[in-house]
Amino acid sequence: MNTLVETIKYFLFIMGELTLLFIGISTAVQLVLMYIPQDKLKNWMAGKGILGNIMGVLFGAVTPFCACSTVPITLGLIEAGVPFGTVISFVISSPLMDPLVFLMLGAFLGWKAAVGFLILTSAFAVIFGIILDKLGWADQIKKVRLKGGGHLQNNEVPLGFKKRLKQSFLKALGDFKGVLVYMIIGVGIGAAIYGYLPEDLLAKVAGPNNPFAVIVVALIGMPLYIRVESAIPIGMALIDKGASIGAVIALIISGAGIAIPELTMLASIFKKKIIVAFIVIVFVTAIASGLIFNMLI
Description:
The chain is an all-alpha fold. The chain has 14 helices and no strands. The protein starts with a helix and ends with a helix.
């Protein structure tokens, strides 16, 4: 009974913190984006070379897109003439990085982990975007168009700070409702791990003494469709039970980066070769990032 009570307390505490963080940070992000025209963002990404890849990563990082909106935006970038390598960097970074993820990682796993996660995922997104571009895989884009036009469009932005703040809050509230189920599942799994998973078992599988922990956890995360918001509370519980920080980072990247719904929709834009490459890229990023975290943190 004591374990059950502690598990419930853990669930309610983490759920409350995540709710406040998600709504507060999402509101701030939406408000900032209202002051930055999307056409200007698109023009910034049109540069050639590594600068374009960096801008693609930044665009993916500052815009909190889910899988359902990442794909139409990707098609819009392609139709707008944004270079192929930049588009790939955006696609890789989009599901993994946004201000909410950074602040949640900092709040729950520490700011070293948040900064390390940001640097590593950004670097891998830029590198693999350049590699696929140099391989000449731009011809792997299918000739499709988005009904209603695929170009980035500016939504109707209200005038005045108060009206913009209200619309930003309502948008954040709508986004929160969209991820609430995933958040409950993630926090629930984390609470169950915190309360009931045997520490010795986890230490053998994901602990720092297992040289294959990062690879094993990355493989476990691949078939799961978990948003970063769900993966973070699971990772917190795993760390409390003795898992290495590298294994947790690998779980977050592989679980959130390889989302079956997003892959299905990306298959409508890209040919099979890029879809397979995308899965490999996320898996390699998860393992490499996890190993680097274990060495440095």
